Structure formats: C-alpha cells, structure tokens
Amino acid sequence: MKIKNTIMNEPQSGNILFYILIAVALLAALSYSVAQSGRGGIGKVSEEKAALYATEIIEYGNILSQAVSQIRLRGYKDIEISFENTKITGYTNANCTEDGCEIFHINGGGINWMHPPPNANDGTPWLFTVNNLVNIGTTNVDSIMLLQNVDMGVCQQLNKKLHGTTTIPQEEDSITLTKFAGTYSGLAISDSGNVMDGSSAYCFEGNVAPAAGTYHYYQVLIAR
Question: Burial, 125: exposed, middle or buried (Cβ in 10 Å; 0-12, 13-18, 19+)?
C-alpha cells in the first residue's frame, strides 16, 4: 500500500511544480510589463495615441503663444513676461511687478499650468526658456516653451501634423535649458540640414545637450 501511494503522489508533485513554474513566469512577465509602462520609453506609444498626444501638445503651445501675444498687446515688454506659477519653482521674474504680466495668473494670461499627456514624454514638465531660432524674427534670442524627452512616436506625429513629415531633424550641438527669469541669453536651435529654419514649432533629436537619442519639442512664444 505504501508503494502504491508513492506512485500516485509522484505525478501530483510534478503537477504542483509545473504550476509553480507557470506562476513564477507570469509574475516575471507582469513585473516587466509594469516596469516598462512606467518608463514612458521611446517609441512605446501606439500611433493612434501618439497622434492624439501630438494634437494636445500643439494646441497647448498655441494657447500659450496667444496668451503671451495678448499680454504684450497690453504694453508689457518681452523682459517683463513671467512664467511664475504654483506648480514649478524657478520662474520668478523681477521685471514683472504686477499680475498682468504673469502668464499663469488670472489677471495676466489666465492660463492653467498643464503637465504633458501621460507617456507623451518621460514626465518632465514644460520648460519655458530662451534660444535663438534661425530665421525667426531677428538674430536676437527668442522666447520658447520646450517639452523634453518626448516619445519618438509622438515626436514623429508632431512633425507630421505641423510639417507633413515624420522625419526628425537632429540639432547641431547644444541648446539652452535654463528657466526664463527675465534675461535673454541663450544658444541656438538649428540643424545641419537647415530643416528647422524659419519654423516656429518643431520636434527634433538632441545631439550634445540634450543627448543624441532623445527627442524634444519647441514652440516659439516671442520671436525677437
């Protein structure tokens, strides 16, 4: 009888081990999936979602651009424009001495601060900075808003909607990544093929700073 029980239990033990191995494999797959989804990695967004995200990003840029124009029409100078807000620090502009020159104040631009769409980039918030765009305004440095570390698929959709192509030009060297606080001093955003020349909005690949293999979107707010 003991021999019989031993023979009967062997397949049951084998089945239990088999189920344990399956559970371990499923757990590993789930952990990998969660890790990947949390990364907001390059090219991980579906084409449909990328197109929707691109539309949202472009529209927000246009809204900010219009708000800046409205404030300037009220007589405020370019150095007085303030991007100070309650979400991200570092934008206090001493040149702006009243609410009317603040983009994110109800008495100024009346704009709500918005974070990028989920997974459209790595979660880095919008950056309001200054760079010189070739053939935009004069040779002076321009005011721009910059979305860093954009998903590659979203970057392609941005250029497709704006310029009819999914090609992503690569920036020549380094750009300015300093928050604007009233001073216009910055580098140039340009590419060796002159693809971005004269464009008020484009998604491009970094080169030195930001690094190659990363993608970034700019929208000109003030062409100087």
Answer: middle
24 φ/ψ angles, rounded to the nearest 5 degrees:
-65, -40
**CB crowding 196-215: b at 16 or more within 10 Å, else e:** beebbbbbbbbbeebeeebb
Residue-number span of the structural domain to which 10 is assigned: 1-39
User: Do 71 and 10 belong to one domain?
Assistant: no
Residues 113 and 201 occupy one common structural domain: yes
pLDDT in tens, 93-126: 999 999 999 999 999 999 999 999 999 999 999 9
Q: Look up the pTM and report it.
A: 0.80
The CB density around residue 137, as the number of other CB atoms within 10 Å, is 15
Helix (H, G, I), strand (E, B) or coil at 14: helix
Q: What amino acid is encoded at 24 in this protein?
A: V
Q: Report CA-CA distances (Å) from 111 to 44, 66, 73, 94, 107.
A: 30, 10, 16, 20, 10
> How many separate domains does the chain show?
2
Whether 34 and 49 share a structural domain:
no
**Mean per-residue pLDDT, 147-153:** 98
